[in-house]
Amino acid sequence: xxxxxxxxxxxxxxxxxxxxxxxxxxxxxxxxxxxxxxxxxxxxxxxxxxxxxxxxxxxxxxxxxxxxxxxxxxxxxxxxxxxxxxxxxxxxxxxxxxxxxxxxx
DNA sequence: AGTAAGGCGGGCA
DNA sequence: GTGCCCGCCTTAC
Length: 105
Description:
Blueprint: H1 3-12, E1 20-21, H2 22-28, H3 35-43, E2 56-57, H4 70-79, E3 84-85, E4 88-89, H5 91-94
Parallel strand pairs: 1-2
Antiparallel strand pairs: 3-4
Helix pairs in contact: 1-3, 2-3
This protein binds a DNA duplex (13 and 13 nucleotides) through residues 2-4, 21-23, 26, 31, 33-44, 53, 56-60, 63-67, 70, 73.
């Protein structure tokens, strides 16, 4: 199956009020170094709002990019109840791992 | 089929 | 702690 497709699928599973990282997703898909490809996939995702792509941020907590602009991304994150401070989300608080048994953060 | 671009990550200055 | 650079992977042209 196409990598991009899996990315979108996985993105759908991010719980509301949580975020994950590009690298975490890459790992979850068995390709730890494809973090960049993940971003690429999310960027060109044609599927509308079925995919909460805004819940994917950078590993350092910075918001990262967004097709409709980072501003919009932040807005949506806030809408999910996620606070952004100094342009970064608190991963300690909102990080979601796909790895079974792995506690958030 | 070659190549460049992209919502990244980690290491180093 | 911030900023830059180089490496990685997938997809469009």
